[in-house]
């Protein structure tokens, strides 16, 4: 079970979903952004939207908190994921003052604050300890022989309408 010491901010799950819809990121899964495909798609989206900021954040990563022992309905979709510019994996132990003492680059700090203002206004930028009990969570089983999208996912047409509605509020 990886435990991370990271420098970054919490990105509310609802804001992640909106970002994915507004930017038409079909390959992204809002419920688990640490998966390689989703992480890559989100980073590509952010590079397109904020190229100057991402130049100063070459090690930007997404980290999830997850407890496999929690079998409640809310456990599968945690309220936040983390956007981090510095991540240290804690194997058995780590001197947290040493990790924090390494700090972050000044231009990286400013870029992370600006990115936070774009993605999660009002969230604290700081040091976090995050546990992820199952980083390699498998995808939910699919129905064999079915090529259709699940009934609970919005269609492309309804996603387009939602995108149009949400972008009206930001103009």
Largest sheet: 4 strands, antiparallel
Give me the number of helical elements.
Answer: 6
Helix content: 25-40%
Coarse morphology: globular
Describe the protein in words.
- By secondary structure, the chain is α+β, with helices and mostly antiparallel strands.
- Helices cover 37% and strands 19% of the residues.
- Strands 2-3-1-4 form a four-stranded antiparallel sheet.
- The radius of gyration is 17 Å and the shape is globular.
- Residues 138-153 have low confidence and may be disordered.
Topology:
Blueprint: E1 3-12, H1 13-22, H2 36-49, H3 51-55, E2 61-64, E3 80-90, H4 96-102, H5 106-119, E4 125-131, H6 156-169
Antiparallel strand pairs: 1-3, 1-4, 2-3
Summarize the structure.
This protein has 171 residues and is α+β, with helices and mostly antiparallel strands.
